[in-house]
Design brief:
The chain has 385 residues and is mostly beta strands. It has 2 domains: 2-31 and 158-383, Porin (Beta Barrel); 42-149, no CATH class. It is 5% helix and 59% strand. It is built from 2 helices and 22 strands. It has helices at residues 17-30, 144-149; strands at residues 2-4, 42-45, 51-60, 63-68, 72-76, 83-94, 110-116, 119-123, 131-134, 138-143, 161-172, 176-190, 200-215, 218-235, 240-251, 256-272, 276-291, 298-312, 318-326, 336-348, 351-362, 372-383. It has a 12-stranded antiparallel β-barrel with strand order 11-12-13-14-15-16-17-18-19-20-21-22. Strands 2, 3, 4, 5, 6, 7, 8, 9 and 10 form a 9-stranded antiparallel sheet that branches. A hairpin with a 5-residue loop joins strand 18 (298-312) and strand 19. The radius of gyration is 26 Å and the shape is elongated. The two termini are 35 Å apart.
């Protein structure tokens, strides 16, 4: 069944949208923080005499970020900088330093920085001697406040990132139709800083598509699909992690009243960057399926093999893609598959426009019900962070 939804306006309705509203209130309030006072401007001097005035932000992944007052945020090569002076305090981390949990001092030089002759000099102040680190030996330069905050314990309701999307359509004509789609996607990674090794990650997802078309003298046409899942990842190394997951699905077009899935397995982060991630997962699960036709109900032992990809383009454009297949070992006919791709375009500040295509396949639905369900949804998105 192919459903098209467009979002000329956003409306508030009771019922399923209450869950999305709950997430919006709970987690956006947790992300609010006080804005720090603006420090004195920093100066960068290049060999040709050109100067940049602004603020040095960080050095990660081999690139230094500098926010120029005239050019905005740019990337500079510290090895090609003649002079750089900053009045802010930073933590300068060398390549051979391994940061452990709670390590905030020790062998990490901290203070104001100056760059010249391919060397970073750190002045801790209070009459303490300067320390010098060659640019080639640098791993990261992090502002002192962010460095300290990275090692502070945060409650479960803090440090959530994600987005909430809502789309709706109402038609009053020869036919009366109403459609509503909502989506909530949240992730809490500890630590949040990409310059520290990951420890754990929690994800929560919810999506709902509801539609109804009525016309005098003809049967009503109804669409009702929802999906909810949660997953906890515990990293065994910087790439490999163990996972525990739970998922719930309902699909009216497939005759599926409720599908419950509980399981655990392993995942691997093939790409782990600030602007790009690629994960592969495999799990063994217990699955319970309840259909419109009770005789079709069954309990299964199956697996889920999944691939998840995220890419951030320039100008804040975000692409998310996911594919999973679920073979059932206790009943080889009861396999299923899922695929989705979505893109979010920034509109204003944290608001954006999102479009998604979702394909859900169930090989053994009850008679007269469809195996394949395709959704195309659009809507307004609010990003929490």
């Amino acid at each position: 069944m192919l459903n098209y939804r467009f979002a000329p306006k956003v409306i508030l309705t009771p019922g399923r949208f209450a869950l999305a509203l709950f997430f919006a209130i709970s987690f956006s309030s947790a992300g609010l923080h006080a804005q720090a006072a603006k420090p004195d401007p920093d100066v960068v001097v290049f060999p040709n005499g050109e100067k940049l005035i602004g603020h040095f932000e960080s050095f990660t992944g081999g690139s230094a970020k500098f926010k120029s007052d005239t050019l905005g945020e740019i990337t500079i090569d510290l090895s090609k900088v003649q002079e750089l002076h900053s009045s802010q305090k930073f933590a300068v981390i060398k390549k051979d330093v391994k940061l452990g949990k709670g390590e905030t001092d020790g062998q990490i030089p901290r203070g104001t920085i100056a760059v010249a002759d391919k060397t970073v000099r750190v002045n801790p102040g209070d009459g303490k001697p300067e320390q010098a680190v060659a640019v080639g030996d640098l791993n990261n330069i992090i502002d002192e406040a962010s460095f300290d905050a990275a090692f502070h314990h945060a409650s479960f309701f803090q440090k959530w990132n994600g987005a909430i999307a809502v789309g709706s359509s109402i038609v009053e004509a020869t036919q009366k139709s109403v459609s509503l789609n909502t989506a909530v996607s949240l992730v809490r990674a500890v630590p949040t800083e990409d310059w520290l090794s990951p420890r754990d990650r929690t994800t929560v997802d919810f999506s709902d598509s509801y539609g109804k078309v009525t016309q005098p003298g003809t049967p009503d046409v109804k669409t009702s699909i929802y999906h909810a899942d949660a997953e906890r990842d515990q990293y065994l190394s910087t790439r490999l992690y163990a996972l525990a997951a739970v998922a719930f699905d309902h699909n009216f077009s497939q005759g599926l009243d409720l599908q419950q899935m509980y399981g655990g397995g392993l995942g691997f982060s093939a790409i782990r960057k600030a602007n790009e991630t690629l994960d592969f997962k495999g799990s063994v699960d217990y699955e319970k399926q309840q259909f419109e036709t009770a005789a079709q109900n069954q309990n299964l032992v199956d697996s889920v093999f999944a691939e998840l990809y995220m890419l951030k383009f320039t100008h804040g454009i975000l692409l998310n893609q996911q594919i999973s297949v679920s073979p059932a070992w206790s009943n080889t006919r009861a396999y299923s598959a899922y695929g989705s791709v979505g893109i979010t375009l920034p509109v204003y500040k944290r608001f954006g426009f999102t479009a998604n295509v979702i394909d859900s396949f169930l090989n053994d639905p009850p008679p007269t019900f469809k195996k394949n369900s395709v959704q195309f949804t659009t809507g307004l998105t609010y990003t929490l962070h």
